[in-house]
Amino acid sequence: MDYYLVIDILGVIAFSISGVLSSMKKKMDPFGILIIAFVTSVGGGTLRDILIGFPVAWMRNLTYVHVILITTIFAIIFRKKLVFLRRSLFLFDTVGIGLYTVIGVEKGLSAEFPPIICIAIGTMTACFGGVLRDILCNEIPLLFRTKEIYATACMLGGITYFILLKFNLSSELVFTISGAVVIIVRSLAVYFDIRLPSVYLSHDHHP
Amino acid sequence: MDYYLVIDILGVIAFSISGVLSSMKKKMDPFGILIIAFVTSVGGGTLRDILIGFPVAWMRNLTYVHVILITTIFAIIFRKKLVFLRRSLFLFDTVGIGLYTVIGVEKGLSAEFPPIICIAIGTMTACFGGVLRDILCNEIPLLFRTKEIYATACMLGGITYFILLKFNLSSELVFTISGAVVIIVRSLAVYFDIRLPSVYLSHDHHP
Amino acid sequence: MDYYLVIDILGVIAFSISGVLSSMKKKMDPFGILIIAFVTSVGGGTLRDILIGFPVAWMRNLTYVHVILITTIFAIIFRKKLVFLRRSLFLFDTVGIGLYTVIGVEKGLSAEFPPIICIAIGTMTACFGGVLRDILCNEIPLLFRTKEIYATACMLGGITYFILLKFNLSSELVFTISGAVVIIVRSLAVYFDIRLPSVYLSHDHHP
């Protein structure tokens, strides 16, 4: 297995666990949980591959499906351990968007799209699985719920990637730093409760 | 018309009627009803064809659009008859997922995907149209609402298909038995109120 | 830039502004607003291109992304001016569906689909971005909310297009009249509160 696939699989594991945690809150049965874990982990990459015009990754490589199955079974069995990690949904979701952002950017680059499109692809790859998870679990999507810095962190990670590309760094280093930027920016923003100012029409206050 | 297309058309009819019944509950106008019937019947197949990389079936063969139009008009005119059938939405939705599961599995096979991917494709083909119908009608998707055995029935039908393939049966027989498994499993589960146990974190009870 | 791209860009501008107006109501931050503006303006065309099997337009031509960025920044800065236009969301949404309906019909024709499929493509191109916008902003989709004439106006515009094609008119004239039909039909319907009669099962009144 190459470095690239390893990272992809780590993202699949992180998002599968986030899917299991979300669906257990809704008291789903094991098959329902499996479906949510599956959709959460492959949703973003599926959108990415369809938009670019690539064959859909999880359909061509059974590793994805096996990893999702095993992760889901483990996450269900060890669910009480998972919950000892405070904010575990936050943790796995954040690692997931960090990894998927950079994978999306690199897939866009490999199809020779310009940087701004690659950043858009990376952001969508990262956010779409979680949006599907939240819609299917009847939650307001995380992306829009908390006014957290979420997609913004992905965009910053994508921008970091293209800045680092200008320096003479190994591709693993560029990948790792950009993914870490997403994770750190989102974590710091949540920890220090940093939000961007919201924009609205003043008369909306008195409708 | 070949056997294959006939089955596909039966699925389109079943899902169109389920779309008409759902949208009439929301007191939509005839064009709104037509759109819901259309989305419900072609949604799953569209997702399937896009994932596999096939041309989208309903765009290449006008039979689909004509069948949806005629079914919708008939279902609207004879809506009072439809309602005499108790649980008619359940009936048509269940026949629809039975037929679409096996069609999805076979399309996956024809593109030479391995069995587990074919079962995933079949389950998605069966469930996606109904999920769209429920989202557009502002219902919690059936798939997640009632904790019924729903996607699980589709997966069992898909597994049956690959078990039967090992025996020396005609393709029509394999198709028919697998589709029947989906319909019977879901019907029995609803009739006897059988559910799989739900999995949750115990402290979620006292949030 | 050719006539065709100009019209497409006008549609992008109209839908971007409608996305900005919707998301400002939800007090999103600037990046959230940008994402909603982006999804609203490219959603319909993305679905259209994927269904037809074309490369996705906004990924191949940076003009789209630049126009969305600039429009969003302008719309945020001049948001107080926008609100002086009464019903400005209605206005921009209506212009958007008018333009996108005809663009969708023409893209369908260029791929040699029959008229009824082209009308379906046009209607989807027009409606899908707004449906995504409303789902992401947690509104009941406009398409289904008000029982307004909405998708119906798009279908009438598409039908007009194919009637006009039979006469010896310039393609610009066919385009302009068909788009105007969508805008005028929807505007008149809202102004005079015209609705199509809804269809329902009488016993649904007493559930």
TrEMBL record, chains A, B, C:
Topology with respect to the bilayer = Multi-pass membrane protein
Chief subcellular location: membrane
Q: Which Pfam families match?
A: Gly_transporter
Q: Tell me which residues make up the Glycine transporter domain.
A: 6-79, 91-164
**Which keywords does this chain's UniProt record carry?**
Cell membrane, Membrane, Transmembrane, Transmembrane helix
Compartment list:
Cell membrane
Stretches that traverse the bilayer: 6-24, 31-51, 57-77, 89-107, 113-136, 148-167, 173-192
The record's comment on protein family reads: Belongs to the UPF0126 family.
- What is the name of this protein? Trimeric intracellular cation channel family protein
